[in-house]
Amino acid sequence: ETGVTQTPRHLVMGMTNKKSLKCEQHLGHNAMYWYKQSAKKPLELMFVYSLEERVENNSVPSRFSPECPNSSHLFLHLHTLQPEDSALYLCASSPGTGPYEQYFGPGTRLTVT
Amino acid sequence: SQQGEEDPQALSIQEGENATMNCSYKTSINNLQWYRQNSGRGLVHLILIRSNEREKHSGRLRVTLDTSKKSSSLLITASRAADTASYFCATDFSSGSARQLTFGSGTQLTVLP
Q: What percent of chain A stands above pLDDT 90?
């Protein structure tokens, strides 16, 4: 256990559905991240939040919408996804956005049909 | 452009042997980190080496960093079947308003009992 939890662990959704991924960290960290991991591709950073403020958005399509209501919780809202969005979505946290290691959750395996 | 790139992509060894994985990167970094990922799970931080360090040890792990060659290596000594996993290097560099980690594609290590 890394102190970062993600729900659900598996999600199958149609292209017209709306769903949300949830991440919670119990480490007292100030920074949280969403990553996308597709088969045979490097981990892609999607969003970075520091002290609940989004500080990075790496050109992610608007069908992905993050929300960070407080420093312990991070959501990724999904809307009208495409099959190529099927991937493992990983949440991570760190004490700040400086030279720290990141602590990852177990991920949500998303399949878009 | 991608920062970290691991080599080899896959490595298969016998239990008890040493495993060496390499990582090359392209631009100046603040630090370099190694992570491990078991199949379909989140990443686990292994070790962080700063740009002014040349070598670091943690248990059976030894990491070297050569900033002149922009490369790092991870050595796992006396490997065990439980070491079977994917190993990623991640480079910490400054970009925009936050420091980011950029991950390579990983080395899939298989340790045969």
A: 75
